């Protein structure tokens, strides 16, 4: 008794078969096998947005971070999770002068789970309307960070890269990187 693979091969390789039929007979079993497996995503570390995103998933962000971005020194400070949210502040300093501040909240809202930002001038005048804020909807979590629409956090131990999608007046967009480290720097085991 001949195996199914042998029969398909014999059928496909017969000189009497048209070339298109030969290709179909050889590829159909392969498509069946491939079709029964889930193909990997672009980023294997990214997991889909859970139905119930928990603020505790962002606990690694808590603390003080400082580094370079937007042509100056950036400082970002995040609270620990409490009551389903985390609160953060940001300031950009160029030279010895504050350029702007931000107040941020990560947590659930009426439209899902998001990071919301309100910007303030150095005089602490809001850039957004009284009830307005910039909203970055949560998209996914990976072992190395989190992705919001238009904003990403990628961490490597005590280093954090934030990328923000910025629009320009001509309608184009670009990703602006901010490179931060935990501040003050944790003491190494040799220093302790």
Please supply descriptive tags for the structure shown above.
single chain, about 190 residues, mainly beta, Lipocalin, 2 domains, 10 strands
Distance between the termini: 74 Å
Q: Low-confidence runs (pLDDT<50, min 5 residues)?
A: 2-14, 17-50
CATH hierarchy class name of the largest domain: Mainly Beta
* Oligomer class: single chain
Largest sheet: 10 strands, antiparallel, barrel
Q: Superfamily at the CATH H level of the largest domain?
A: Calycin beta-barrel core domain
Q: Helix and strand succession?
A: HHEEEEEEEEEE
Q: How many structural domains can be distinguished in the coordinates?
A: 2
Descriptive account of the structure:
With 192 residues, the chain is mainly beta. The protein folds into 2 domains: 4-35, no CATH class; 55-182, Lipocalin (Beta Barrel), CATH 2.40.128. Helix content is 14%, strand content 44%. It contains 2 helices and 10 strands; from the N terminus they run ααββββββββββ. The chain has a 10-stranded antiparallel β-barrel. α1 runs antiparallel to α2 (19-35). It starts with a helix and ends in a 10-residue tail after the last strand. The model is unreliable at 2-14 and 17-50 (pLDDT under 50).
């Amino acid at each position: 008794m001949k195996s199914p693979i042998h029969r398909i091969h014999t059928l496909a390789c017969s000189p009497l078969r048209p070339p298109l039929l030969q290709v179909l007979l050889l590829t159909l079993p392969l498509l069946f096998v491939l079709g029964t497996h889930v193909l990997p995503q672009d980023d294997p570390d990214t997991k889909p947005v859970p139905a119930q995103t928990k603020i505790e998933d962002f606990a690694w962000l808590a603390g003080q971070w400082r580094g370079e971005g937007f042509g100056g020194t950036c400082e970002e400070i995040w609270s620990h999770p409490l009551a389903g949210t985390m609160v953060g502040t940001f300031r950009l300093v160029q030279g010895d002068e504050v350029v702007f501040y931000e107040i941020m909240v990560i947590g659930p809202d009426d439209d899902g789970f998001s990071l919301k930002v309100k910007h303030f001038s150095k005089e602490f005048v809001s850039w957004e309307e009284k009830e307005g804020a910039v909203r970055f909807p949560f998209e996914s979590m990976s072992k190395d960070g989190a992705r919001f629409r238009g904003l990403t956090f990628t961490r490597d131990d005590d280093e954090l890269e934030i990328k923000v999608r910025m629009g320009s007046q001509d309608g184009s967009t670009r990703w602006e990187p901010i490179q931060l480290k935990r501040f003050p720097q944790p003491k190494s085991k040799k220093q302790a």
